[in-house]
C-alpha cells in the first residue's frame, strides 16, 4: 500500500528488547506495580540504609517524630479498644473451643508486633469470630477439644504458626495478588454465612446446653439444638435475651448518633462486668447458668514446646492455617485500606502481610492464636481518634495489667453473656444493603455472594469459600476466553472513533470495517477472536450488499492488546489468509510494544507487511481511501 502523503505518523520498528529486559519489566509490573523502592534511587549508602530500615520497620519512621500531643489521642483510643478486647477475647476463644485466657493472651503480644511492623495507623489487632470458628471446625476433624484439650490446643498454636508463615511468605514474595482472588462479593457472602452459623451456635450458650454438635452447617446445628431440648434452661435464656437487647440498643444509639460510638464500644465490657456481678451474688452456677471458670494470673507463657508436627495430625493445622491466613489477610488489609482512604492515606498491602504474618508467628510462640485487624475494633479505634499504631501498644499494656492483676475477676463471667456479645457482633456482619446492591447492579457478583453464603451456611465454611472463589475464577476465565470486540465508527464532526453500539450516531466508512480488540490474545481466546472477526465480516457483508458497498479493508485496532503469545500470532496470520481469500486486506492499527516485538521476532511482520501497519485509525483510513481512489482510476 503506497502513501499519498508524508504527514502520516510513523510506526516505531525499534529493535526488540532482549529477553532479560522484557522479563525484568514483566516481573516488576507483576510484583512491584507500586515501585516501592523508588525512594532509594540516587541516595547515598547511609541514607539508603536508613530508608530501608524505615520501609521494613515502619515504627522507626514515625516514632522519632512522636509527640505528647499525639500520645493523648492514642492513649484514649488504646484504653477504649482494650475495653472491647477483653470481652471479645474471652468470647472468641470460647468460639474456638480453647481456654478463655488464650483469648486475652492474643491481645497482648500480637499488637506489640504489629505496632513495630504494621503500616496502618488505624488497624486495631485482635481475634476474629470467623477464623475462630474455622480453626475449631478444622482442628476438630482430627481431635476433639472435649476429649483431649492439650493436643487440641497444641494444634491450634501450630495452625497459627502455619498461618503466620503463609502470610509472611506472601508478603516477602510480593504475592498479594493471590489475596485479590477473594473478591468483595465472596467476602460479603462468607461473612454473612459465617454470622448465621455463629449466631445459631451461640444458642448453645443462650439455652444452657451441655451437649452439642461439632459440625458448623445450619442443619446440623438446628438438629443438635432440638435433639437436646430437654437441656434447655429458661433462666439462661432470659438472662441472655436481656443482655442481647442491651447490646443491640447500644448499637442502635451508635447508628443514630455516631458521636456516641463509645456507648457501643464499652457495652460488651459493661455486659461482662454486670454478668460477673450477677453470677457472683446470685450464685448463678446453682441456677444452671454456666460460668467461664478459673482464669489464672500471669502473662503469656511460652508455647514453643507445644507446637505439634506429628504426621498423624499435621494435615488439620496446615489446612486451617492456609485458609485462615488468606481470610484474615483479606479482611485485615481491606479494613486497613478502608480507613486509610478516609484520611486520604495509603498503606502497603505487602508490608501489611508481613506484619500480620510476623505477629501470628510470634503469637504462636507465646500462647496466642490467630489474630488480624477486626472491623469492630478498628472502627472503635478510628472513631476514638487514634493517630498512630501506638494505640495498639496502649491496648497491649492494658491487657498486660489485666492478665497480671484482674484476670481471676472474669472467672465469674456467665457463658450466656459471652454468647450475647458474639451474637450482637455477628448480627452486624450480615450486610443486607451490600447484598441488595449486588443484586441490583451485578447479578453474577450476587451469585458469587450467595454461593459463599449458602455454601458456608449449609455445607461448611471451607467448602463454601472454595465454591465462591471457584465461581469467581470461572468468571475471570470467561473474561479471558471471551474478550470483548466491537465495531468502531466515526463520531460526526470529530476525529474520534468509538463503539457504534454505544454511540449509534457514529458512522463507518464505505468499504472499510474497523474492529477493536480489547484483550490480550492468548491460546485460550484465539478461536473465539477468529470466529468473532469472521462473523463481523459476514454481518457487515450482508449490510454492505444491501447498500451496494463491498468490504475491501479490515482494520484491527490493537491498542487494547497488551500482549500476545505464539498461538495469537498464528491466529492473526490465519485471519489474514481467510480475509484475503474473500478479497479483503487486513490492516493493523496501533500495535502495543509487546505485540509489535512479538510480530518482529517471529518475522510475522514481514508476512503482514509493514505498509499495512499504522499508528492511528485516521492514517489507516487515509491510506485505504487513497488506495481505493487509485483502484477506481
From TrEMBL:
User: Which Pfam family, giving just one, matches this sequence?
Assistant: STAS
Q: Where in the cell is it found?
A: Membrane
Q: Which PROSITE patterns match?
A: SLC26A (PS01130), STAS (PS50801)
Q: Which UniProt keywords apply?
A: Membrane, Transmembrane, Transmembrane helix
Residue ranges constituting the STAS domain according to the UniProt record: 502-624
Q: Which residues cross the membrane?
A: 98-117, 151-175, 181-200, 232-249, 261-281, 320-342, 354-372, 393-410, 416-432, 444-474
- Protein name in the entry: Sulfate transporter 3.5
- Provide the species name: Datura stramonium (Jimsonweed)
Amino acid at each position: 500500500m503506497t502513501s499519498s502523503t508524508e504527514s502520516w505518523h510513523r510506526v516505531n520498528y525499534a529493535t526488540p528488547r532482549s529477553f532479560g529486559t522484557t522479563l525484568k519489566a514483566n516481573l516488576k509490573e507483576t510484583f512491584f506495580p507500586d515501585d516501592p523502592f523508588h525512594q532509594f534511587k540516587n541516595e547515598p549508602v547511609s541514607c539508603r540504609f536508613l530508608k530501608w530500615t524505615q520501609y521494613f520497620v515502619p515504627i522507626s519512621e514515625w516514632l522519632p517524630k512522636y509527640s505528647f500531643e499525639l500520645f493523648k489521642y492514642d492513649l484514649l483510643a488504646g484504653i477504649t479498644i482494650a475495653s472491647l478486647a477483653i470481652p471479645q477475647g474471652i468470647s472468641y476463644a470460647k468460639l474456638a473451643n480453647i481456654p478463655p485466657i488464650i483469648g486475652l493472651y492474643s491481645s497482648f503480644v500480637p499488637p506489640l508486633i504489629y505496632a513495630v511492623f504494621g503500616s496502618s495507623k488505624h488497624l486495631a489487632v485482635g481475634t476474629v469470630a470467623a477464623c475462630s470458628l474455622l480453626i475449631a471446625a478444622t482442628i476438630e476433624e482430627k481431635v476433639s477439644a472435649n476429649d483431649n484439650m492439650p493436643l487440641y490446643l497444641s494444634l491450634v498454636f501450630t495452625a497459627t504458626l502455619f498461618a503466620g508463615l503463609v502470610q509472611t511468605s506472601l508478603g516477602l514474595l510480593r504475592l498479594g495478588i493471590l489475596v485479590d482472588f477473594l473478591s468483595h462479593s465472596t467476602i460479603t457472602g462468607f461473612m454473612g454465612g459465617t454470622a448465621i452459623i455463629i449466631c445459631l451456635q451461640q444458642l448453645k450458650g443462650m439455652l444452657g446446653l451441655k451437649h452439642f454438635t461439632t459440625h458448623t452447617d445450619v442443619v446440623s446445628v438446628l438438629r443438635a439444638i432440638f435433639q437436646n431440648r430437654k437441656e434447655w434452661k429458661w433462666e439462661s435464656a432470659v438472662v441472655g435475651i436481656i443482655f442481647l437487647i442491651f447490646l443491640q440498643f447500644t448499637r442502635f444509639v451508635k447508628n443514630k448518633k455516631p458521636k456516641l460510638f463509645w456507648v457501643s464500644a464499652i457495652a460488651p465490657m459493661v455486659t461482662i462486668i454486670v454478668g460477673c456481678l450477677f453470677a457472683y451474688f446470685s450464685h448463678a452456677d446453682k441456677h444452671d447458668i454456666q460460668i467461664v471458670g478459673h482464669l489464672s494470673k500471669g502473662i503469656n507463657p511460652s508455647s514453643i514446646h507445644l507446637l505439634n508436627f506429628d504426621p498423624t495430625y499435621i494435615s488439620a493445622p496446615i489446612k486451617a492455617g492456609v485458609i485462615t491466613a488468606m481470610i484474615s489477610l483479606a479482611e485485615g488489609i481491606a479494613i486497613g485500606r478502608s480507613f486509610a482512604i478516609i484520611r486520604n492515606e495509603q498503606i502497603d498491602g505487602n508490608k501489611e502481610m508481613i506484619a500480620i504474618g510476623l505477629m501470628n508467628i510470634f503469637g504462636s510462640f507465646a500462647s496466642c492464636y490467630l489474630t488480624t485487624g477486626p472491623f469492630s475494633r478498628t472502627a472503635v479505634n478510628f472513631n476514638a481518634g487514634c493517630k498512630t499504631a501506638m494505640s495498639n501498644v496502649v491496648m497491649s499494656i492494658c491487657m498486660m495489667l489485666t492478665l497480671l492483676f484482674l484476670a481471676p475477676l472474669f472467672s465469674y463471667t456467665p457463658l450466656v453473656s459471652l454468647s450475647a456479645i458474639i451474637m450482637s457482633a455477628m448480627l452486624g456482619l450480615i450486610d443486607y444493603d451490600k447484598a441488595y446492591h449486588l443484586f441490583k447492579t451485578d447479578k453474577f457478583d450476587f451469585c458469587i455472594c450467595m454461593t459463599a453464603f449458602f455454601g458456608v451456611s449449609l455445607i461448611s465454611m471451607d467448602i463454601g469459600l472454595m465454591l465462591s472463589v471457584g465461581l469467581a475464577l470461572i468468571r475471570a476465565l470467561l473474561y479471558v476466553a471471551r474478550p470483548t470486540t466491537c465495531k468502531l465508527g466515526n463520531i460526526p464532526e470529530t476525529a474520534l472513533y468509538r463503539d457504534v453500539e454505544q454511540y449509534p450516531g457514529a458512522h463507518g466508512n464505505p468499504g472499510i470495517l474497523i474492529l477493536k480488540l480489547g484483550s490480550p490474545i492468548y491460546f485460550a481466546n484465539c478461536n473465539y477472536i477468529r470466529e468473532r472477526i469472521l462473523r463481523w465480516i459476514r454481518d457487515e457483508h450482508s449490510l454492505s450488499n444491501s447498500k451496494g458497498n463491498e468490504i475491501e479493508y479490515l482494520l484491527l485496532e490493537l491498542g487494547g492488546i497488551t500482549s500476545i503469545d505464539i498461538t495469537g500470532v498464528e491466529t492473526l496470520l490465519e485471519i489474514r489468509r481467510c480475509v484475503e481469500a474473500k478479497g479483503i486486506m487486513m490492516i493493523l492499527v496501533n500495535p502495543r510494544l509487546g505485540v509489535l516485538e512479538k510480530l518482529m521476532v517471529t518475522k510475522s511482520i514481514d508476512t503482514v507487511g509493514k505498509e499495512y501497519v499504522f499508528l492511528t485509525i485516521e492514517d489507516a483510513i487515509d491510506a485505504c481511501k487513497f488506495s481505493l481512489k487509485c483502484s477506481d482510476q
